[in-house]
Design goal:
Helix content is 38%, strand content 14%. The chain has 107 residues and is an alpha+beta fold.
């Protein structure tokens, strides 16, 4: 069976099992969202970095409306891994809103 999409993974050095690559449904890209204050000036705090797998997990579950099981199958990971990825992405987004920090999507 041919899978469509990009395979993404990061390199971990040292002991332990290497992370399993994920299938991403869009080409990896770099993008930064910068918040502005009430006067219209950009806020230059330390950015929070979202990984492509966090963006893809949120896209599949919250934008396309798939169940976690369906999204995990599409990404080629377990449901538990997808749940942890969603949790990490949500936490980063909320932290960026509360602390008024830029959001950087790294490719």
């Amino acid at each position: 069976m041919h899978r469509r999409g990009w395979r993404w993974g990061w390199c971990r050095r040292g002991p332990g099992r290497p992370p399993k690559p994920r299938t991403i449904g869009f080409p990896p890209f770099k993008l930064t969202f910068i918040p502005f204050d009430e006067a219209g000036n950009p806020i230059n705090n330390e950015p929070l970095k979202l990984t492509p797998d966090e963006v893809e997990a949120m896209r599949l579950v919250y934008f396309e409306g798939l169940t976690q099981e369906e999204a995990a199958k599409r990404m080629g990971v377990s449901r538990g891994t997808l749940w942890r990825t969603l949790s990490s992405g949500r936490r980063k987004l909320v932290q960026a809103i509360i602390e008024r920090r830029p959001i950087m999507i790294v490719g």
